[in-house]
Amino acid sequence: HFCSGHRVFKHEGKCANAHGHNYYAHIVAEADHLDNTGRIIDFSVLREKIGSWIDLNWDHTFLLFEQDVEMIQALSSICTPKPLFICPFNPTAENMADYLLTVVCPRELKDSNVRITKIVIYETDNCYAEASLN
User: Fold this and answer.
1) What's the predicted TM-score (pTM) here?
2) Nearest partner of 65 among 114, 116, 99, 106, judged by Cα
3) SS3 string of the chain?
4) What is the mean pLDDT of residues 91-102?
5) By Cβ atoms counted within 10 A, which residue in 78, 86, 89, 97 is the most buried?
6) Residue 59 to residues 41, 55, 63, 132: CA-CA distances in angstroms?
7) pLDDT given for residue 52 in this prediction
8) How far is CA 83 from each of CA 75, 80, 95, 108, rounded to the nearest angstrom?
């Protein structure tokens, strides 16, 4: 669970305005074999590695697309002490899920046999997007 603000750059509707969500991220992990305890990975380790990255980078942060120069300039002076997270993607739930799946998780879990195969990002209780390797 994390809270972030964003605006969807060049959105045709109200999401073009700055706003925020209480997001939930669901992570699906796979491995070639289970550990000696019979797990893919201990949930606390997954929470520590991926959850810590989310806490440090996205929680209580404003996510902005790197091309959204106007909003970056407008918020840069007031988003302290935590900086903005400048995304190499437009911060939709779909792109956030894909970024976690293809960039963050492989990097954070590189020294393990664990693969994250699916990320679901809930933007609201009934609106979500998912990215999957399958």
Assistant:
1) 0.93
2) 99
3) CEEEEECCCCCCCHHHCCEEEEEEEEEEEEECCCCCCCCCCCHHHHHHHHHHHHHHHCCCEEEEECCCHHHHHHHHCCCCCCCCEEECCCCCHHHHHHHHHHHHHHHHCCCCCEEEEEEEEECCCCCEEEEECC
4) 98
5) 97
6) 24, 5, 10, 23
7) 96
8) 9, 6, 20, 21
Identity at 93, one-letter amino acid code: A
Has residue 115 got a pLDDT over 90?
yes
Please tell me the distance from the alpha carbon of residue 30 to that of residue 113, in angstroms, as a whole number.
8
Active site residues: 15, 60, 123
Task: Indicate the residue type of 27.
Answer: I
Beta bridge partners of 72: none
